[in-house]
Write a structure and sequence with these properties.
Layout: H1 5-9, E1 24-33, E2 36-46, E3 51-55, H2 62-69, E4 77-82, E5 85-86, H3 89-92, E6 95-98, H4 110-121, H5 128-141, H6 162-174, E7 180-183, H7 192-209, E8 212-216, H8 222-225, E9 230-235, E10 238-244, H9 248-254, H10 265-275, H11 277-292, H12 320-339, H13 351-360, H14 367-376, H15 383-402, H16 405-421, H17 432-470, H18 476-486, H19 488-506, H20 510-539, H21 542-558, H22 579-591, E11 598-599, H23 612-615, E12 621-622, H24 624-630, H25 637-662
Parallel strand pairs: 3-8, 3-9, 6-7, 7-8
Antiparallel strand pairs: 1-2, 1-4, 4-5, 9-10, 11-12
The structure holds adenosine-5'-triphosphate.
Length: about 675
């Protein structure tokens, strides 16, 4: 009724050219989520080149089982082995996990997405050409060639279709040539023909490349159902059937539940499990009885309810002598690598090539060996490769967000408006407040725009980053550094282009002050970006981040030194937390240091001047430094500038730590 080892290994048409694959065996797997026992004594196995479907009603524990098998969820008891060895870090690297949600950067094309995955996930020992060849191979295998130049898209921008996106999701995982592929509901959300074609493609790929495939599946059609080799039926965390997929109907028949003709077997078994508690119990009990019978693979005939688990048959493990020889061979490779000078990083035996050679070798369940391997294999690529590729990707993704058509229109409109309102502003006491106004406006505009742009950019890419971090694609530090630097040119472009136009249109203080103003605005924009980045990381939710950013901007603006210069004494310290306060004072300092004098109010028909210089007889001008004194801008320029650097450093460091230690992917 159910299947045996030999049954599973000799399916007709099984063509294995992918080397020795992985055989997954899980016995009496029990797992908890919090105090709740979500999996109870679940057993099964799947051989290389074959597909196991995990099915069951909603809440049956399919995803939990998949997570547990993939090592993403802790095991409470039982055993999971791959080729007879317990799952360890090095084995985990031969496994890939395709999430149910297809999360990507929407503005990148499929080609850019896959190229990025290949560049950061394949070892540095492979050349760019080899990595691109790998991409082409996967694209061919998954039939994605025709949409390589299409953007991934999202709910707002049209891009790849649902089926293509799912294939793209799988392709990103297959890039590393994993031996074991876990898929969480790969067909959900797809129409029948797309789902069928996807499962067929997977089956062909598994057969041809000797991959082991385990997928949770939700109400498949009978055609899709029979594409799988074996089935594990789950119900309330328990196993309700495990065996050949084409024997499940027979199994149900044996417990007195006959399926009428033309019924979809997938629907039939699910309906029976959901019928009532008595029926469900009958099926589960029959499945447990089945386990004790001889038809079950020996290695799965473990116990339930705490009885002793049988050991994995020795035939599954490699011959001991052979195993120990291979172990020492590996140690020798590592020793040779270690004795090589650092410059040999790109030579044949660089860490990458060891990584590859070890990936191809069979695993050894030896603690010392694992430690050596894991040290070398923590990341698939070096920091520089990760940083470079992440920078290129973030730049491509961010440029449409930060510098899109609407943003350009907005910036041009504001620039024209500001230039016209304050055009060639006369340098008089009467227009002093206007001059301060335009300076304050520039500070606000070039600080708050990058703050808003970055505060939204991080939460929007959170899911992609979490997915990639959970699969160990790259270091958080490489991502963070890339994020900061790749967006910099886009953020600095605004003050450079539009700040320059405004500066000369208004007629601010000369050439040398122009360069200093531009430099200050750059630092100011970077401070705004740093605060935005921190808020985006800390909140991880666009709406919350926007709310906090708005409060932050309003506070910063009120305390910036333009609207009020005389805060109540018990509140006056608050102005020091506003980065705008420092920039505004920097720019004021530049505007009125070594600058032409300001005409007195009396010379322009305003009877009373506020400046002492104008009260002298025949005096017509106010020296610039008196303007600074009048507004109590009495620190040296660098003293106003320094806190901006402190803002940049503090927020960037805080952002990194929150991202690394607080916002970990689950
Ligand atoms: N954090 C949690 N705390 C308590 N119970 C949980 C938690 N997460 C999941 N569960 C429970 O674990 C059980 C199995 O969940 P799981 O997601 O594995 O089911 P599933 O079969 O994949 O369901 P679906 O088909 O609806 O996705 C469910 O009953 C669910 O309510």
């Amino acid at each position: 009724m159910t299947l045996s080892n030999s049954d599973m290994s000799s399916k007709p048409g099984t063509k294995t050219n992918g080397g020795r694959g992985l055989e997954l065996v899980f016995r009496d797997v029990t797992a908890h989520i919090g105090p709740k026992e979500v999996l109870k004594d679940v057993s099964g196995m799947v051989k290389a080149g074959q597909l196991l479907a995990i099915m069951g009603p909603s809440g049956a524990g399919k995803t939990t089982l998949l997570n547990t098998l993939a090592g993403r969820n802790p095991l409470s008891s039982g055993e999971i082995t791959l080729n007879g060895s317990k799952i360890n870090k090095s084995l985990k690297r031969k496994v890939c996990y395709v999430l149910q949600q297809d999360v990507f950067f929407p503005n990148l094309t499929l080609k850019e997405t896959l190229t990025f995955a290949a560049m950061v996930r394949l070892p540095d020992s492979m050349s760019r050409k080899e990595k691109l060849e790998k991409v082409n191979e996967i694209v061919d295998a998954l039939d994605l060639t025709k949409c390589l130049e299409t953007i991934m898209g999202d709910m707002w921008t049209r891009g790849l279709s649902g089926g293509e996106k799912k294939r793209a999701n799988i392709a990103c995982e297959l890039i590393t040539d994993p031996l074991m592929i876990y898929l969480d509901e790969p067909t959900s959300g797809l129409d029948y023909s797309t789902a069928f074609s996807l499962v067929q493609t997977l089956k062909t790929y598994a057969r041809q490349h000797n991959k082991t495939v385990v997928a949770t599946i939700h109400q498949p059609s009978s055609f899709i159902f029979y594409q799988f080799d074996s089935l594990l039926l789950m119900s309330e965390g328990e196993s309700a059937y495990y065996g050949d997929i084409d024997k499940v109907v027979e199994f149900f028949g044996s417990v007195g539940m006959e399926m009428s003709q033309h019924y979809n077997p997938a629907d039939f078994v699910l309906e029976k499990l959901k019928e009532d508690e008595k029926t469900r119990k009958r099926i589960v009990d029959a499945a447990y009885d089945q386990r004790k019978k001889n038809e079950w693979p020996t290695m799965l005939r473990g116990s339930q309810n705490g009885r002793k688990i049988e050991n994995v048959p020795s035939s599954v493990l490699k011959d001991d002598a052979d195993k120990s020889k291979r172990f020492y061979d590996k140690i020798n490779i590592i020793k040779r690598f270690r004795s090589k000078p650092k410059e040999a990083a790109n030579d044949e035996e660089d860490p990458g090539s060891i990584h590859m050679s070890l990936m191809e070798l069979d695993e050894i369940d030896n603690g010392a060996m694992e430690t050596v391997i894991d040290k070398k294999r923590k990341w698939p690529t070096g920091f520089l490769t990760q940083y470079t590729n992440l920078t290129i990707r973030t730049f491509r993704q961010s440029k449409t967000q930060i510098f899109n058509r609407f943003k350009v229109i907005e910036a041009v409109t504001m620039t024209i408006l500001v230039s016209l309102i304050w055009f060639q502003l006369p340098r008089t006491e009467a227009t002093l407040r206007d001059r301060m106004g335009v300076i304050f406006f520039m500070s606000m505009n070039y600080g708050f725009t990058p703050l808003f742009d970055t505060v939204t950019s991080f939460p929007s890419e959170r899911m992609v980053i979490n997915k990639e971090r959970a699969s160990g694609w790259y270091r958080v530090s490489a991502y963070y550094l890339a994020k900061m630097t790749s967006e910099l040119p886009l953020i600095l472009a605004q003050p450079l282009v539009f700040g320059t136009i405004v500066y000369w249109s208004v007629g601010l203080n000369g050439v040398s002050a122009y360069f200093a103003t531009l430099g200050t605005l750059f630092i100011h924009s970077i401070a705004g970006q740093s605060i935005g980045l921190f808020l985006g990381i800390a909140c991880m939710d666009i709406r919350r981040a926007m709310t906090i950013a708005t409060v932050c901007i309003m506070t910063t603006m009120l305390l910036g030194g333009f609207y009020t210069r005389h805060l109540p004494f018990w509140l006056s310290w608050l102005k020091y937390i506003s980065f705008l306060y420092y920039t505004f004072h920097c720019l004021m300092s530049l505007e009125f240091t070594d600058a032409p004098p300001v005409l007195c109010a009396s010379s322009t028909n305003i009877s009373v001047s506020q400046f002492s210089s104008c009260l002298h007889q025949n005096a017509t001008t106010i020296p610039s430094h008196e303007v600074l004194q009048f507004f109590e801008i009495d620190w040296p320029f660098w003293q106003y500038l320094l806190p901006l650097f402190i803002f940049i450093i503090a927020f960037r460091i805080a952002g990194y730590f929150v991202l690394r230690f607080v916002q970990r992917p689950h």
